[in-house]
TrEMBL record:
<feature type="binding site">
    <location>
        <position position="129"/>
    </location>
    <ligand>
        <name>[2Fe-2S] cluster</name>
    </ligand>
</feature>
<dbReference type="Pfam" id="PF01257">
    <property type="entry name" value="2Fe-2S_thioredx"/>
</dbReference>
<dbReference type="InterPro" id="IPR028431">
    <property type="entry name" value="NADP_DH_HndA-like"/>
</dbReference>
<dbReference type="InterPro" id="IPR036249">
    <property type="entry name" value="Thioredoxin-like_sf"/>
</dbReference>
<dbReference type="GO" id="GO:0051537">
    <property type="term" value="F:2 iron, 2 sulfur cluster binding"/>
</dbReference>
<dbReference type="InterPro" id="IPR042128">
    <property type="entry name" value="NuoE_dom"/>
</dbReference>
<feature type="binding site">
    <location>
        <position position="89"/>
    </location>
    <ligand>
        <name>[2Fe-2S] cluster</name>
    </ligand>
</feature>
<dbReference type="InterPro" id="IPR002023">
    <property type="entry name" value="NuoE-like"/>
</dbReference>
<keyword id="KW-0408">Iron</keyword>
<protein>
    <submittedName>
        <fullName>NADH dehydrogenase subunit E /NAD(P)-dependent iron-only hydrogenase diaphorase component iron-sulfur protein</fullName>
    </submittedName>
</protein>
<dbReference type="InterPro" id="IPR041921">
    <property type="entry name" value="NuoE_N"/>
</dbReference>
<feature type="binding site">
    <location>
        <position position="125"/>
    </location>
    <ligand>
        <name>[2Fe-2S] cluster</name>
    </ligand>
</feature>
<keyword id="KW-0001">2Fe-2S</keyword>
<keyword id="KW-0479">Metal-binding</keyword>
<keyword id="KW-0411">Iron-sulfur</keyword>
<comment type="similarity">
    <text>Belongs to the complex I 24 kDa subunit family.</text>
</comment>
<feature type="binding site">
    <location>
        <position position="84"/>
    </location>
    <ligand>
        <name>[2Fe-2S] cluster</name>
    </ligand>
</feature>
Amino acid sequence: MAELKLADSKVRELKDVCKKFDYDKSELINVLHQAQSIFGYLPAEVQEVVADELKVNVAHVYGVVTFYSFFTMIPKGRHPVSVCMGTACYVRGAEKVLDEFKHLLNVKVGETTPDGKFSLSSLRCVGACGLAPVVTIGEKVYGRVAAEDVKNILADYS
């Protein structure tokens, strides 16, 4: 696999983040959160920069990235779609909603559409059980979603 070439401006921004946290290794999670905001995900090359700047082992950075579900090493789409599969959502038809997203986007859970527009994931609980089934697209929350609603929801992002 070829090495990813990181944009110099983004690398400088990441190094500034490390400096802002005084290169403190105990701030690794905060640095990684900001790194993911800058790059959209945390490929090995970003992890190496963080490890270099904070003077920690790359394996330690990788361990943190893979331990916390918030972090991703796979690029997300511009519109990340998450379908809640918690108990309340599941019993109210979330699986059918997820199946419809998979069908219309032609991706599996964990994948991104070839145009980079959407990525699809499922999660355990959004904390909006009264609105079950719940879908989030970016920061926007959709409640009481039925499979028939998916096409119209996606149309909002065309």
